[in-house]
Amino acid sequence: MSLKSLSLFSFPFIALCFTVANAATFNIRNNCPYTVWAAAVPGGGRQLDGGGTWDINVNPGTTGARIWGRTNCQFDGAGRGGCQTGDCGGLLQCQAYGAPPNTLAEFALNQFNNLDFFDISLVDGFNVPMEFSPTSGSCSRGIRCVADIIGQCPNELKAPGGCNNPCTVYKTDQYCCNSGTCSATDLSRFFKERGLAVNNFSGTLPPELGKLVNLEQLDIESCGLGGEIPLTFANLENLQKVRASDNAFTGKIPDFVGNNWTKLTSLRFEGNSFEGPIPSSLANLASLTSLILRNVLLTGILPSYITELHSLKRLDLSFNNLTGTIPSDMFMMGSLKYLFLGNNGLSGPIPNRTREILITMNLVGNNFTLNSSNIRLLPGLECLQRSFPCSRAAPRCTS
């Protein structure tokens, strides 16, 4: 029998689990800095201070099982009281599901082909971040829900200690989908848009995601995905923020990023394996305020059109293989505050004009030609040449 582990967590953890007869053992650990009253059906409940653990054994064939966390609870010596979130009828030892809002870990054992199924669900809203991971058997990939959902919760869904599911608040078919014929809503998208990041998926991005034409935010950071970005993603013309860092995406950055995603205000692709130059289509992103293409194996020159992205506040193109010179007007961009071009193969002179708005600039590890005006502008520029051993304590130059 494969093992499972569940973490109510704010950082990664390692849990030691074991098997008992033919049952599955769940190790529940509180990695949050505050007390959580863990609950399980079947299983009961237990108070877990920070770092506390609780093992429960679940019989094979169990279905409809849930594990969740409760917060801000008070119980008397008989185990009666109540919790602000996830309360189960005022009992420490839960015999029924908890009241919203609460983040749910759901599972069913020994189902089709004797497989176990598990998920993290926000059908009852959100109250604590959670990780649910198997620790033995053929399944080794876990799932997480760690987004700042409470901090970003829409006003109409806010609840003491958590964020409600819209069905809990409105109780209509539009949000509860009891008829089975409902469509996505802005409030359901709020949860969906925050549900993919920091997981352990494998394979490539499904082309079918290109059908989500109303999508405004896409967060697929650290998900274990690879391959090229599907051409169907050109349909996502309403995207405003994209975070796709720390995966294994390959190929060229698609031209449709600039030609179709023209509403983008933030684009973050760092830590991938793209190839080729910075696409010229990015010149169309007039609303872009943040462009992070750090460590993605880019080649070619720094395109001059970047200086025409007048809304850009942060630009990070460091740790690539860019060559050529810095466009003469780059340091004069009206909104640019943070510029990172370090560890490329840039050469030639450094522009000798800069605006006071520029707060941080990192140009280390290139092949620039220095002159006296450069030194007056930015003292300590020796570290901008690859042959000079830069101090680890001072890798950045500021205006």
TrEMBL record:
PROSITE patterns the UniProt entry points to: THAUMATIN_1 (PS00316), THAUMATIN_2 (PS51367)
Keyword annotations from UniProtKB, A to Z: Signal
Entry keyword Cell division: no
SMART domains: THN (SM00205)
Pfam families per the UniProt record, alphabetical: LRR_1, LRR_8, Thaumatin
Cleaved signal peptide residues: 1-23
Gene3D superfamilies reported for this sequence: Ribonuclease Inhibitor (3.80.10.10), Thaumatin (2.60.110.10)
Keyword Ribonucleoprotein belongs to the record: no
PANTHER family according to UniProt: OS03G0233200 PROTEIN
The name this protein goes by in its record: Thaumatin-like protein
Source organism of the structure: Hibiscus sabdariffa (roselle)
